[in-house]
Amino acid sequence: MLRSVILAASRSSQVERLVATAPFTRDVVRRFVAGAATDDALRATRELVADGQAVTLDYLGEDTTTPEQANATRDEYLALLSRLAAGLTPAAEVSVKLSALGQMFDEQLAYDNARAICAAADAAGTTVTLDMEDHTTTDSTLDILAKLRKDHPGTGAVLQAYLRRTESDCRELASAGSRVRLCKGAYKEPESVAYQSAREVDKSYVRCMNVLMSGDGYPMLATHDPRLIAIGEDRARWFDRDPGRFEFQMLYGIRPEEQQRLVGEGYTVRTYVPYGDQWYGYLMRRLAERPANLAFFGRAVLSKK
Ligand code: FDA
After folding, report:
1. What is the pLDDT of residues 222-273, one digit of tens each?
2. Options 181, 241, 270, 286, the catalytic residue
3. Residue 171 falls within a domain, yes or no?
4. Which of 27, 174, 249, 285 is most buried, judging by how many CB atoms fall within 10 Å of its CB?
5. Do residues 220 and 156 touch, judged by C-beta distance below 8 A?
6. How many whole angstroms from 199 Cα to the centroid of ligand 1?
7. Which domain holds residue 130?
8. What is the CATH number of the domain that holds 186?
9. Is residue 300 part of a domain?
10. Distance CA 64, CA 106 (A)
């Protein structure tokens, strides 16, 4: 119920104006978003890499409705990648939302823009991962992924355990050289396509993890859930995956002490670092995830008072 309300608010421009101007907002945003500028993203990346972590950078932008906006997003990624090439690759890669590159109104444009970003990532010695958005975009995103992989085989996919189709998508993508990030899923989805209870989503996550960890690809286990992380560690032992053959991923500002614990254990841990001024949708999805996350945000607000 609460999740639905917050996800509905994430699409409301009125609530966006309210949240954007609230007194506590700046401090909360700063904890979960590296900043508005490329320099902020690079600073956060340098700090994480110095702490032994890998990074994937996301330039925030979702309400892309014109080719000019889509091309501006592409250009920001190209500029970012050329700066990452100066010492921060391959530890840092980029995550891209196809909707920010034009997918909602011109799939060919989104593909062309993504291809330009993949070529720049190749030149910079790193990779691109395509974020996954709501279920209406899954087929289009996987189609574009397949085309991109012909020239850029390191391009990564994201699969969402809450979707009923995902176990089968994992089987399709668990092949040699295939990088797959497995997450629970962050959008409001109907029962026809998605598991609705946390228990069902967790069980699906474990089934999908089993497929990926026993397969030939490179699994990227994206979760903050202590139980799923423990199962991931167990599967790594079971399937003989040493730390270079899979990784854990978490979001910037969430469970940093757990990220460091896993680094200390010798695992590869990649932090997803969002930056840019279009932080609203991202922040609301984090708020919607779990009551535990709401409490976390509440503490963030109170500790700054
Ligand atoms: P969940 O939110 O259920 O939390 C499980 C447990 O983790 C909690 O009970 C608590 O113990 C712990 N926990 C969670 N948050 C905490 C906090 N703030 N502080 C302390 N403990 C906390 N989604 C999507 O749809 N498309 C995408 O492309 C991506 N990409 C992506 C990349 C990366 C690197 C990550 C980590 C996540 C995504 N996601 C995503 C988001 C994902 O789908 C999901 O919404 C969030 O990761 C939250 O799910 P968890 O697995 O963390 O579990």
Report:
1. 999 999 999 999 999 999 999 899 999 999 999 999 999 999 999 999 999 9
2. 181
3. yes
4. 249
5. yes
6. 15
7. 34-278
8. 3.20.20.220
9. no
10. 11
